[in-house]
Amino acid sequence: MRRVMVISCLFIVIVPLISGCWSKRELNELAIVVAIGIDKVGEEYEVTVQVVDPSEVSASKSSGGRTPVVMYHAKGESMFEAIRKMTTVTPRKLYFAHIRMMILGEELAVQGIGQTLDFFTRDQELRADFYVAVADQSSAKEVLSILTPLEKIPANKMFNSLKSSSEFWAPTVPTRFDELLKDLESKGRNTVLTTIRIEGDPKQGTGKENAEKINNSVHLRYSDIAVFKNEKMVGLLNEEESKGYNYIRNKVKSTAGIIACPKGGIITTEVKDSKTKVKGKMAKGKPRIDVTIRSDTSIAEVDCDINLQKTETIAELDKIASEKLKGIIEKSLDTIQHKYKVDIFGFGEAIHRADPKAWYKLEKEWEEIFPELEVKLKVDVKTKGLGTVMNSLPKKQKE
Amino acid sequence: MNFFEKWVSKSFKESFERDSEQQQIEPEIPLHTSLQDNIRDIKKTLGNSTDIVIREVRIGKSGDQLIGIVYTDGLADKSAITDFIMETLMLNIKGTRLDKKIQSSTNILQLLKDYALTIGDIKDVSDFKTLYNSVLSGETLILIDGHAEGLLASTRSWQDRGVTEPSAESVVRGPRESFSETMRTNTSLIRRKIKDPNLWLETRQIGRVTQTDVAIMFIKGIASDKIVDEVRARLDRIDIDGILESGYIEELIQDDTFTPFPTVFNTERPDVVAAELLEGKVAILIDGTPFVLVVPALLISFIHSPEDYYQRADISSLVRILRYIGAFISLLGPSLYVALTTFHPQMLPTAMLISIASQREGVPFPAFLEAMLMELAFEILREAGLRMPRTIGTALSVVGTLVIGQAAVEAGLVSAVMVIVVSLTAISGFVFPSYSMSSTIRMLRFPMIGLAATFGLFGIIVGLIALILHLCSLRTFGVPYMSPFAPLILTDQKDTILRFPRWALLSRPRLINEKNMIRVENELTQKLKRGE
């Protein structure tokens, strides 16, 4: 009994000591990576990381005049090789758990992203909640080297503006890394990624002075949506087509829409709430998709002569808006069905859900069926509010 | 024999052989018949101590009856002795019939007791042991020449601090009186709250040298007989030279020595003792200390404050939840910080991580050492604050806050977050109404930091599991320490994390009481009795 006690006591004392602090990492021994960019240069990967310089970001200490983030890059045949090779230049070990943005180079996106992402799915350190975007007309390395004003850490700027633009403007798609992986695996749907573009001369944006001017010359802007076929990028959707895509995918939270007044001039509406239902069904052996969109709007800006107090006017406006929205979505459908021929809407998944047996037959030839797929669109826009005034100011003055 | 006993006994044998010098008063030495002999013996035994007053007076009609009066100066009430013993015997009975009787009677003792001594409590004494005990605890001895017996008049009265406000357990709403060092005062404070004939008090002397009065107090019929018997048995087992504070008794009667958790509750508030007695617990009062012990003590009783019962139920429930959160922070604050920053930075939000990282920039110590240093500094400050003369207190707090807090951060030795964590932890440690439990939690904080620094969150969880296993293994006077959580007793959950309204606190705690469970009689209990 005593021996057992002594041994267990020794065990308790020794175990913490022999293990030491084996996987311990002090915060000031870590280089916190906030963004990672991947480009393909020839046969090699070029990995770029954006690392935070904590003392420059800190709220309390005065800035030492250095940039808040530092960029490191290295080339290698594989991702892991490149990343480990980077330790030859980085002062500390890179810590990847807090990545906010992953930027994929256009070249890489065209060649296929599946193999590249393998490392990130395998590594246990990563959190999969960062956004992925494709660099448009530039390399990922260039995107990551732009310093942004207001938000000290460019990765945070990219993360936040992608989030807010998708919430209030709609044509962007915030795709989290885990969602991207799920999409790549799915057979009934192909993925899309938002693209990010440098506005202005990339060389001017790398210095701290870019963040020191009121009207800084270089911006990072989210623009179009990149359409992927399986793991390869096949093309871009423009802003309006992107919006159409988001309507079908039920991802519109709020956006602005411009409609023409019956008597000339325009009215801008704010979409307050939009619900889309996509239903698949097999009709006479042929797959068919019903898309129903219900959108609640309110008048945001009136730039024409119109009497909004009449219910007929509102009904007319609703009709115009519905037609307009239908047009946008039809155009987007047309581009995707006939130009790219890639099912990024998940219509395949809808058929799968509705009629699994039929889907197993269609699955193999879905690529051929998709462009010919009959999509029935039903759009219903309802004006629910006029804002804080009934009729606009100019009309009152005339009376 | 376990390791610890062996360790203790190693040096004991020697001292055992050296023992024997102290004078032993044989229990049954009878008094002498001669007053002179008695006085000589008393003087000899007490070593002519100067605070023992021995007075010889003559009473009776012709003044030929010699009596001796012995008392301890400072412990006996001088005015009572003058007014009710000396004056009566020497002046008031002069010339009365009693005076004559004394002359003739052979049983003077009985006569004095029956007719002369106008004092409340009178006892007979015939042996030296009782004599010394009584005289040294403030009673007045009256010896009569020619009789091998004496009288003891209760004249106990000494300088008392009086009933003051409690200093260790303060409340906003509730009685403002606390126990003092005199046991009689303390028993009276409890009696004043519970005027029930079933409130029983048993006194015994413990301590071969100090002869300290120790009293057991319980409500007959509510307290479980088993627990009362167990308390009696444990107190009777004690054979020690002295009891100076309730802590002595606590250590000698507790169930487990090697546990950081107190298994005996102590309080300086009469209202708390009264409440515990009503729950069926047993109070142990010790003369010479304002701290009264209460057994059995459950873990939750250390987290509950008397004020919980004086405030409205909803407020006190919220405050209790706050206290549980405080307990959690107090135990795990620094260890969670160490674990999260050194092992699991991925669990922090990015913005927070960067902010913490920027503050740790340039700090020369690893987080573990930083936490240990700060905790140690705080403990030293706390201990110094307790021990130092009160007048220097302000100087200490200035030095403490300035040096440890601000200067250390500005010098870059310690990160600002660490200071926040340590001070939050320190403040949380004071949410415990019971001082003994807050010391326990403070002590356990250190191994927790060590575990966090070696295994991260995993270590903390292992530590917590070990802690909970240990807590569940503890018993206090036969009652599981963790009850009513483990074993889970649903009816007793009414007064654990939440405090139900008074009318819903129908019964006494189940494991402590076996009978007489109902506390409240109202419509609800009547309905229950009718079986609705």
Question: How would you characterize this protein structure?
Answer:
The complex is a heterodimer of chains A (399) and B (532). Chain A folds into two domains: 27-56 and 64-237, no CATH class; 239-388, 2-Layer Sandwich (GMP Synthetase, Chain A, domain 3), CATH 3.30.300.210. Chain A has 14 helices and 14 strands. Chain A has helices at residues 2-19, 54-57, 79-85, 106-111, 114-122, 140-144, 154-168, 177-185, 239-248, 311-340, 347-354, 356-362, 366-372, 393-398, and strands spanning 30-41, 44-52, 69-76, 93-95, 101-104, 131-136, 175-176, 192-199, 219-229, 232-237, 255-260, 266-283, 286-303, 374-385. In chain A, helix 9 (239-248) packs across helix 10 and helix 11 (347-354) packs across helix 12 (356-362). The termini of chain A are far apart. Chain B has a five-stranded antiparallel sheet with strand order 1-2-4-5-3, sandwiched between helices. A five-stranded antiparallel sheet of chain B has the order 6-7-9-10-8, sandwiched between helices. In chain B, strands 11-12 form a two-stranded antiparallel sheet. The two termini of chain B are 58 Å apart. The longest helix of chain B has 30 residues, at 313-342. Chain B has helices at residues 3-10, 12-18, 35-45, 78-92, 97-104, 108-116, 128-136, 183-193, 225-237, 246-253, 270-278, 307-310, 313-342, 350-360, 367-387, 393-410, 416-428, 435-455, 457-473, 523-530, and strands at residues 52-59, 65-72, 122-125, 140-144, 150-153, 199-206, 212-219, 265-267, 282-286, 292-295, 475-476, 479-480. Helices cover 47% and strands 11% of the residues of chain B. Chain B folds into three domains: 35-153, no CATH class; 183-297, no CATH class; 310-480, no CATH class. Chain B is of the alpha+beta class. The A-B interface holds A 2, 5-6, 16-17, 19-21, 23-28, 30, 32, 34, 52, 54-61, 95, 97-98, 100, 125, 127, 153, 156 and B 2-3, 341-343, 345-346, 350-351, 353-363, 366-368, 416, 450-451, 453-456, 459.
